[in-house]
Each structure stands twice: as structure tokens, then as C-alpha cells.
Amino acid sequence: MRVPVNRGACCHVAGDIDFDKHGNLWMVTGDDTPSGGGNSGGFAPFNDMLTTTGQYNAPFVDARRSAQNTNDLRGKVLRISVKDGDIAAGDQNQFGGAYTVPPGNLFPVGKDKTRPEIYGMGFRNPFRVQVDENDVAYVTDYSPDSQTPQNFRGPAGTGRVEIVRKPANYGWPLCVRQDLPYYRWNFNTSTPLDSPAQPFECDNPEHGPQNNSRWNLSGGPTVEPGLEYGPPVTNPDIWYSYTPENRADNPIGTPCLAYYNGSGTTTCPRLFPELGTGGVGPQGAAKYHFDPDNSDPTKLPPYYDNAIFAGEFTRDTLKEVRLDSKGRVFKINDVLDCAGLNARRVPDTNKPFECDNPMDMQFDGNGHLYLLGYGDGFFNSNADAGLYRWDYVKGKRAPIPVLAATPANGSAPLNVKFSSAGSRDPDAGDSIRFEWDFNGDGTVDSLDPDPQYTYTTPGQYTAKLTVLDSSGKSASANTTITVGNTAPVVTVNTPVENGLFSFGESIPFSVTVTDPEDGTIDCSRVEVTFVLGHDTHGHAEQSLRGCAGVLTTDANDVSHGGNVFGVISASYTDRGGAGGVPALTTVTQNQVRQKRQEAEFALEESGTNVATTNDPAGGSQHRGSLGNGDWIALNGPFDLHGIDSLTFRVASTSTQVPAGNPMAAVEVHLDSVGGPVLTTANLTSTGDTATWQSQKFPITDPGGKHKIYLVFRSVTGGQTGGNLFNLNWAELGGQGVSAS
Fold first, then answer.
1. Per DSSP, what are the bridge partners of residue 530?
2. 72 Rama class: left (phi>0) / alpha (psi -120 to 50) / beta
3. Are 615 and 651 contacting, i.e. CB atoms less than 8 angstroms apart?
4. What is the pTM of this model?
5. b/e map of 658-695 (b: 16 or more CB within 10 Å)?
6. At residue 245, does pLDDT exceed 60?
7. What is the pLDDT of residues 38-64, one digit of tens each?
8. Taking Cα atoms as reference points, which of 357, 331, 141, 160 lies closest to residue 241?
9. Rounded to an integer, what is the distance from CA 410 to the centroid of its chain?
């Protein structure tokens, strides 16, 4: 099976597979469309317009060509039957694969302008799929990036959990639900395409919204023409956004049409308050089926029968979803008390189970849940990543082992200090004891809580700590010790950590590597990658080999929205030690921050809100309700190396203060709201609410790494009331870490 992809256009290709009880193979694919491409600004990308230069936008900024194209395998749930035996030329179908299509998919075999492999369509980035014993697929689908709605355009980015009970169209990129349409949009002028503004028809029971994309109707690079109207839109079972959870004091609610159709409504009902706080990252859902004939004593109990377990990557949560007799979401509960790890890389005592950035989950045939945790960070070996099996234990519980070893690698002889600090037993009154096996031979080498051991023979060893409690329960943890090879030390010298750049600029880098066994370093073995950091995940972009060079960045990456930054990721794998001791890899990363900080994406604030902007310079939203003493923190921290100015993009909130007169002030504090003042910017009135100005102020690099807080102040003769001015963005000016 061949699925087209526009390589070089970041992101959203999804990808997961599962088999059903009949042996059919199910697959999910993403829409292969950048979230901010083609001036989509974090909303749905469906731009096939002529640009101002008279050329058409590239096909990859129009998700209608893929997710809403009935003749394309992207943005889909696919279901096929793989043929048994060897693949001979005569076994191949018209697409070059040895598979057939089972009956009951969305389109029958032979229907014009359709692909029969499609079971479900209209998905953006369906990262995970699980199929239960009733051939029901559970799909988790990532949202676009806009954190607020925009009138006559669309809702805030909405993540979806779809319980796919039958072949269906879920509407993306034109519909989130039947009652959550996007509006037809002019991507060149950033205004509605029609007057009055018209939404896409998402609620027609006979067919889906019109797909008149030039790529869908006529085809194009990697695109085959599809039907103008697909099947009717089916609603997701759970849908949620960045808010209300990010503003518990001023909740917007679960996305609804009223808060972006010009009605003036600013809040919607809160339908799923149990989902908690944070970003949007639905990541895996699986239903538990209790088997009374299963004799395993640690299988999950009948309480969980037919419960759907759902992971949330950005919120470190695992939820239990209950449906009513009509298949509607009835209740959402926590699955035990789980969360991410704390700074000591162990669970907090009030959240003893780990679900740190849930990545995938699977029930085995014996009633146990396997959970894959990605951990914090990306494109790195995360210490808090892991694969966990969850068992049900009635009565006494096993202890929880925590193992540390210092150093974990080095030349022979290698003296290692082991620690069991943090190991504990969850049952009051149980005592614990320790057994150490240093070399994996099954022999207990020490009973001390924190022993030392010297390895004399080169090689790689598995050291195991077993913790036993007074009730007879035990649990183990292990780590790898490498003797005869030392992990390389990788240092990113430039760019400086938390330095500043703008997407579209080039960033020079220099890396130093030392390794005792390798000696002189071959720089062709050093790999340096620019990673687009986006909230809690990242997308790898350009990679170069060498100890020095220049990385290019893509100007379009700024349109991803949210907390977007860069990561310079340098890795080196050594040649291993003498006698075949395995090689070791070290990855070191420096983050770099955007010079222009969009105010609406600030993660920390007090007293402010966001609204659709009327700034002709763009940005979709600005931050308002800036009263005296209110504040926001820019998404840092920052090293102001090479920075000499700070510019605010502002507009007055009334005609009260004539243009050019003092309007308000911004105190720029370092490290805290009450920290040292870097500068005070005295803003002047722009005269009215529709006039925006960029007002620039000099600053001096204070040296080192700092968080930056903007505290808003009223001034004598300036604007009064609870909204001193509107702020679109703040920009730190100067060369920063970019090439000159």
C-alpha cells in the first residue's frame, strides 16, 4: 500500500496499526498538512487560493486534498485484509499490494473517485487506533493550534476522541462536529470569504460539506481527484480545547458555535470538566473487556468492564470513560491517581502511579494494561520514559523500587555507587529490605540499601535491585552498567542556551565532543538537528553533520501557534570500547527562543484575556483587559545576548487619550513579577482602537538566563479603567544568536 506524503512540509502524518479478531488490518493516517501553513494561523488549513504574486498556494496547505478527499488515503482510518503466503506478481492488486478489501468499508470496490480501503475519513492527526472485540475502533485525533476562537472563522483548536462504530466521515478540515463548522475564509485578506460570512454545511444528513478544492476536483501533485461531496459528518464522542482549563477563573467552555458566530457569546457549557487542565494532546484510547474465564489473579476487575481508557499527552492523565445505554459519554473518572514524575523522577505521593506523557496503551489477553510513557522532552533519551504494566492487586501491594547508579559507565575497574533512595512500600506498617544483583547472574550480591561495587572485567551488565516487603511481596528495577567504555560528553557551545532568533533566520552552531576511548573526535560522526519545539512536543527539521555549521529555519514555522521555539540537538555515538564493549550515545540540547513573542500565547498571566485582533499586521488574537498591576510572562527563559531593544505592538482601547500622549507603562521585570526592573516602557496613545503602532525601547543585556515579566501600569493623564491598552506582541530586537 502506498500513501502519498509531501516530504519537507512538516507535519501530521500520524500512523498506527491494529488487527481485529477477523485478522483485518486497521491503519490510521494523518492529513499531511502543516498546522499553520498557507496563512491558516492555527485554524483549519484549506487554502487553495492564488497568492498575491499570482501563483497558487502549494497543495500541502490544503487539507481538503487529503482528509476530505474520498480518493486519498491520508487523514483516514483504513481497513484491509492482508493475503496469506508469499507475494507473487499475480497476487498484487491494482495498487501493487497483496491485500483485499473486506466488505463494509465506507466506499464499495469500484466506485468512481474513491478508495475502497477507507473505513473512516475526515481526521487531522489520528495518532492512535485500537480495535475492540466488536470491531469498534477507538481513535484519538490531535487538534490545530489556535488557543482561542475567532469570529466567523472557527473554534479554538479542538482535540477529538472518536469511537468509530461504523464507516463514517468526521469532517476535518471543514467541520469539527455537525454543529462546529469552520467558515469559508479568504486566506489572502484574513477575512471571511463571503458577506455575510458563511459556514461550511456540516449538518446535512444527506452528504458532507462541499469539497471544491482545486486539488480535490482536478487533482495535482500526489493528489487524485475525489468526490465533490463526501458522506455526512459524524460527531466525535469527546471534544475539548485549550480553554476553559487554562483559565479556571474565566472558563470559555467546551467549543460551541455561539462563541465564534458573531452572537457576542463568550462562554459555552462545560461538557467535560473532568478532563482537567493543560494543552490538547489526546493520545490513545482502549476499551477493557473483562473475561470471567480468565484465571489470572491480577487481571483488572469487572468494575472496569467496557470502560474506555484514554490518555492525554499534554496533561499527564489517564481517564476512564463510561458510556450510557445509547453510547453517549456518561461519566469520566480518573484511572487511579497517576501523573507525571516530579523533579526527583519519582511519582508524587498523592499521585503514586506514573502516566508521564502517555504515548500509547494496549490491553493484553490476560487483563493487564500496558502503558507507554514518552516522558518530558523530545528527540532525547528521557529518563522518565518507560513501558509500564498495570496489574490489579487485591489486598497487600508490592513495594515500589527506585534505583540509581553513579557512574553508569566508564573504564575498568569501575567503582559504582548504588542507591535505593525513594524506594517505598504503599501499605502502612510494611517494612522493606533490599537485594542487589550487580551482574545479572541471579546471585544476590548485597543486602545493603546503598552498596558499592567494583566491576573489573569490561562488558555491559544489568544491575538489578529487588525490594521485598514484610508481607512477602516484591518488585524489581534494573539499570545498565557499561564497563570499558565511557559515554561521550557533548557540549553545544553556540548558540547560547535560551538565546533569541526569528524563524527564517539561520543559526550558526558549534559543538565540542570529548570521549576517552575515541580520543580525537571525527566530526563527521556528530549530528546536529534543528527541532521545532511546539508546546510539549517537537518536530525534527534540518540535520547536518559536523562540529560547526549553520542551520536554516523555516519562516512558516512561526504559524504553528502556541509556545513555539527552537531546539539545537547535538548527538554523538562513540566507537565502543575494546573487546566489543557496546557503543554509547549522548544527546545534548540547547533551546532558543523567538524574538517575537505573541502575547496571546503567554502561558503565565494574571488579570488579562485574549480577543480577536483588528491589527492589520495579523496575529489572529491580541491580549487585552490589561489593568493596573496585571501582568503576563513571556514564554522563556531568555538569554538577551545580542539583544538591544524591546518593541511593543499596541493599540489604544478608546479615544479617551489623544494620539501621542502618554497612555500607559510597561515595567519589564526579571525572574519574577516583583523582580529587578530591566526597563520601564512609557507607551503613547495611538488615538483609537483601530490604530496599531510598534513602539520601540532600548534595553541592555543583563547577562545570563532570565524570565521576563511584563507588568502593566497606569500613568498620570493616561488611559483609565481596567483596559489600559491592547497588546499584540512584544519583540526583542537585535542579532541574538542568528547569523549576521
1. 568
2. beta
3. yes
4. 0.83
5. eeeebbbbbbbbbbeeeeeebeebebbbbbeeeebbeb
6. no
7. 678 789 999 988 877 777 778 888 999
8. 160
9. 36
Which residue shows C-alpha cell 559507565? 409
**Nearest-angstrom CA–CA distance, 135 and 120:** 13
Q: Which has the closest alpha carbon to 701: 668, 666, 738, 740?
A: 668
Cα 338 to Cα 342, 353, 456, 667: the distances in Å are 12, 4, 41, 40
Enter the C-alpha cell of residue 655.
Answer: 479615544
CA triple 626-628-633, angle to 5 deg: 55
Alpha-carbon distance of 466 to 606, in angstroms, equals 48
Ordered alpha helix ranges (H), 131-274: 214-218
**Rounded Cα distance, 390 and 336, in Å:** 11
Grid cell for residue 446: 548485597
Q: What is the pLDDT of residues 529-554, one digit of tens each?
A: 999 887 777 778 889 999 999 999 98
| Cell numbers standing for residue 304 | 472496569
Separation of alpha carbons 289 and 661, rounded Å: 69
Contact 264, 104 (CB under 8 A): no
* C-alpha span between 287 and 71 (Å, rounded): 31
Neighbours of 408 (CB within 10 A): 15
Please state the separation of Cα 515 from the chain's center in Å: 34
Kind and range of the H or E run holding 483:
strand 474-483
Least confident piece of the model among 18-22, 61-65, 472-476, 530-534 = 530-534
C-alpha cell at 476: 524489581
State the DSSP string of 538-557. EEEEEEEESSEEEEE--GGG
**Residue 15, φ and ψ in degrees, nearest 5:** 120, 105
List, for residues 312-356, the tens digit of each pLDDT value: 998 889 999 999 999 999 999 998 888 877 655 566 667 778 888
Cis peptide bond upstream of 426, omega within 30: no
Produce one character per residue of 3-42: b if its CB has 16 or more CB atoms within 10 Å, e if not: beebeebbbbbbebebebeeebbbbbbbbbbbbbbbbbbb
The beta-strand segments (E) located in 21-102 are 25-28, 76-82, 99-100
